[in-house]
Every structure is written in structure tokens, then in C-alpha cells.
């Protein structure tokens, strides 16, 4: 195989199998949609069976859907044994953000946040990596809170920093599988669904107006970074920040 053929093989998603954990909505669904548009087959998994079914229906018959409890290690292990070999793993699953000042932080809820955003990631990579084909990759999700925390963001900032460190460690341990992460700013997704509609709209408007780009992110903006990291073939251990300039202001 020539160098050009090797490069083209990395960049081509047509015919690839891409597993998206958390792919039933938001950024994960946008990743699946864009991958399918390039000829890939998406395998999406999420805890909400109804949402998985609805998501699969938007993917032109080029997707499989699975209900998966990411808090259950055995379920994760069985899932990867069942689906067989694939090319890229994307982890975008997340629950509603825990934003509180430290004195008001419920540590039980804080531990639960780590359960999905760290321990589930570790389990997914553990059981997925033996099934990832040559030239495959893993793309995780973190957030700019780890780089630019605000008051009340102690837990979420800790998780984001942990995922960035995990990304670097996995890139070393799992080589030649490439492991990278995407770090979004505020994005219009279900992560903010615990807020009432007026407060959520105010958040999007106020944050958007404060950013150099003049708006908050949309899932399709962030999805393009995931596709880049799957396709370009040379980066590993890196975190790509897609935040509209959040860390600058």
C-alpha cells in the first residue's frame, strides 16, 4: 500500500462501522448522522430505548440501535462482544450537569456524575479496544470547564480534567489505536434540560452574546470535530477545543 493509499484509508469513512455511545440525541446523534452521510454504518447505544429507536429512524437505514445501561459493566462487556469488530468508538454519553457551589454539592450525586462520565468511559474503552480494527480510533468527550471553570463548576471541571488526562494515558497504552477527545463549550443539547425553558433560553443568549462567534454551539458544529479526529489519522492523545472562543473571554 502506498503512502497516499494509507492516507486515503484513514480519511475514508465509507464502509466503516462507527459505534456511538450516547448516540440517540445531541452531539452523539449529530456524529452518527454525519458519519452515515459519508457512507459509514452507525451503531448507536443509549439508555433510553425509545430515543434510540427514534434516532435510528433518522439514519436512512444505515444504523443499528441498542439500549445499553452504561452504568453496568457487564452490559457494556456483553454489548461489545455482541457487535463484533468495528472501526471507531465515539463516547458522547452524559447526564444533566451538576452545577453547585461546593458547600451545596451533594456528594452522592457528584459520585454518580463520575459513574457515567468517567467509569463508564473506562469500561467502554476496556471492552471496546480489542474489537477496534487497524487504523481505528477512539474519540472521547470532555468540556471547557476543565480549562475555564466558573464558581459552582467544581465537579464538572474535575470530570473534564480527568477525561483529558485519561485521553493522554490511553493514547500511550492502546497505541497504535489513536485516542483523542473533543472539548465543547456551551452547546444547545439535553444537558441543560434540568433548567426551565426561560432560564435555558437566557443562558444560550447571554453566553452566545459573550463569545467571539456570537452564539452558542449546535450539535452539528461539534460533530465535525469528531469526524476530523476519526479521519485524519495522525493525532493521538490530543484534546480538540470547539468552544466558540470560550477560553478566550
Short description:
The protein has 249 residues and is α/β, with parallel strands linked by helices. The protein has a single domain, classed as NAD(P)-binding Rossmann-like Domain (Rossmann fold).
Short key terms for the protein model shown above:
single chain; 249 residues; alpha/beta; Rossmann fold; seven-stranded parallel beta sheet; 17% strand; globular
Arithmetic mean of pLDDT: 90
Helical percent range?
40-55%
CATH class: Alpha Beta
Largest sheet: 7 strands, parallel
CATH architecture descriptor: 3-Layer(aba) Sandwich
Annotation, overall tally of beta strands? 7
Structural class: alpha/beta
Strand portion: 15-25%
Total separate domains: 1
H and E string: HEHEHEHEHEHEHHE
Number of helices: 8
Give the distance, in angstroms, between the N- and C-terminal Cα atoms.
47 Å
Amino acid at each position: 500500500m502506498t503512502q497516499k493509499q494509507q492516507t486515503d484509508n484513514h480519511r475514508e469513512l465509507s464502509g466503516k462501522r462507527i459505534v456511538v455511545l450516547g448516540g440517540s440525541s445531541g452531539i452523539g446523534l449529530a456524529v452518527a448522522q454525519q458519519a452515515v452521510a459519508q457512507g459509514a454504518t452507525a451503531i448507536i447505544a443509549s439508555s433510553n430505548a425509545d430515543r434510540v429507536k427514534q434516532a435510528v429512524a433518522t439514519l436512512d437505514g444505515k444504523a443499528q440501535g441498542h439500549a445499553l445501561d452504561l452504568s453496568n459493566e457487564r452490559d457494556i462487556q456483553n454489548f461489545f462482544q455482541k457487535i463484533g469488530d468495528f472501526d471507531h468508538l465515539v463516547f458522547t454519553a452524559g447526564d444533566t450537569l451538576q452545577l453547585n457551589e461546593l458547600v451545596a454539592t451533594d456528594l452522592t450525586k457528584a459520585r454518580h456524575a463520575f459513574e457515567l462520565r468517567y467509569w463508564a468511559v473506562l469500561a467502554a474503552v476496556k471492552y471496546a479496544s480489542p474489537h477496534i480494527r487497524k487504523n481505528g480510533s477512539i474519540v472521547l468527550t470532555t468540556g471547557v470547564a476543565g480549562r475555564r471553570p466558573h464558581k459552582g463548576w467544581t465537579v464538572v471541571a474535575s470530570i473534564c480534567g480527568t477525561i483529558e488526562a485519561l485521553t493522554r494515558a490511553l493514547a500511550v497504552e492502546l497505541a497504535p489505536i489513536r485516542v483523542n477527545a473533543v472539548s465543547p463549550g456551551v452547546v444547545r443539547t439535553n444537558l441543560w434540560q434540568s433548567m426551565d425553558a426561560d432560564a435555558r433560553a437566557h443562558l444560550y443568549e447571554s453566553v452566545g452574546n459573550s463569545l467571539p462567534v456570537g452564539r452558542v454551539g449546535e450539535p452539528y458544529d461539534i460533530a465535525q470535530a469528531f469526524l476530523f479526529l476519526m479521519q485524519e489519522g495522525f493525532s493521538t492523545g490530543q484534546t480538540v477545543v470547539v468552544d466558540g472562543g470560550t477560553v478566550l473571554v
